Amino acid sequence: MIKETFNEKSFNFNESFSKININLNNNFENRYIKPPKTKDIPYKKLKYQKAVDLVKDIDFQNLDRVFCLVSGNFIFGDFIEAFIVQNNILVEEMIISTLSYSQDNIDSLENLINANYIKKLDLIISDYFFAHERNKLIKNTYDQLDKNNVFQLAVAGTHCKTYQFKTSGGKYIIIHGSVNMRSSSNLEQFVIEDNEDLYNFNKEYQDKIIEKYKTINKSIRDKNLFNLIK
After folding, report:
1. How far apart are CA 80 and CA 97, in angstroms?
2. The domain at 43-229 falls in which architecture?
3. Nearest CA to 55 among 42, 45, 68?
4. Residues whose CB falls within 8 Å of the CB of residue 41, separated by 6 or more in sequence, listed in order
5. Neighbours of 132 (CB within 10 A)
6. DSSP of the chain, one letter per residue?
7. Average pLDDT over residues 170-175
8. Nearest to 86 by CA among 65, 57, 107, 45
């Protein structure tokens, strides 16, 4: 409510209060106002080209640190795919820690694996997301990404959102900020930088998480490993 009008019909007086001399025709402005409703971005308006446009604004060869403030009009996983493909990057290893993701993100990572852009992919997700998507997105994750021992999935109590990969050219790219891999239709912020120290700092604890909470036994070559843990 931006404004509220007090009148005899909308306010219940007790007997003692009714004796107070008060002008009931006054209008009172509230200190707190209701914010305008934000509009969700329809799925059909999420554009891969928007991710490509952002990639073109970032000089990969001379990358130091770039702060990005972005709207939710593209899927953030598309930015990762576009960044790698547009710059023709061979990824020696990629570690993703995210609260959640979408089918589009699975498809995007599968594209990168199938095109041999990624040699090793470790994905850390929240146990909450794993429990709720166990029979859908998690199953699709194993089916689409568990190929040639490239992929590992770890499930832990995490809310971290970091995306990092080491390139064959010696760069240590790390992306960190508010964004999950899927689109949230919200304003988001992240930093992308070439930073070996920060990369190794994150990798040290992430490797421990992956070792303890991994869900794929790579000594068993079974594409349908998901059936063993249902």
Report:
1. 13
2. 2-Layer Sandwich (3.30)
3. 68
4. 71, 72, 73, 183, 185
5. 13
6. --EEE--TTTS---TTGGGS---TT-EEE-SS-PPPPPPPPPGGG--HHHHHHHHHTS-STT-SEEEEEE-SSS-HHHHHHHHHHHTTPPEEEEEEEES---HHHHHHHHHHHHTT-BS-EEEEEEHHHHHHSTTTHHHHHHHHH--TT-EEEEEES----EEEEEETTS-EEEEEES--SS--SS-EEEEEEE-HHHHHHHHHHHHHHHHHHB---TTS--TTTHHHH-
7. 97
8. 57
Q: Radius of gyration over alpha carbons of the chain, in Å? A: 25
| Model pLDDT for residues 105-138, shown as the tens digit of each residue | 999 999 999 999 999 999 999 999 999 999 999 9
What average pLDDT does range 131-151 have in this prediction? 95
Q: pLDDT tens for residues 43-100? A: 565 676 788 888 999 999 999 999 998 877 778 888 999 999 999 999 999 999 998 8
Q: At what angle do helices 76-86 and 103-114 cross, to 10 degrees?
A: 10
Per-residue pLDDT at 11 exceeds 50: no
Residue labelled with tokens 């998901």:
226
What is the predicted pLDDT for the residue at 61?
93
Question: Confidence band (pLDDT; 50, 70, 90) for 36?
Answer: confident
Q: 2: closest CA among 31, 25, 26, 24?
A: 31
Residue position matching structure tokens 């421990």: 208
| Residue whose entry in the numeric block shows the structure tokens 């992956």 | 210
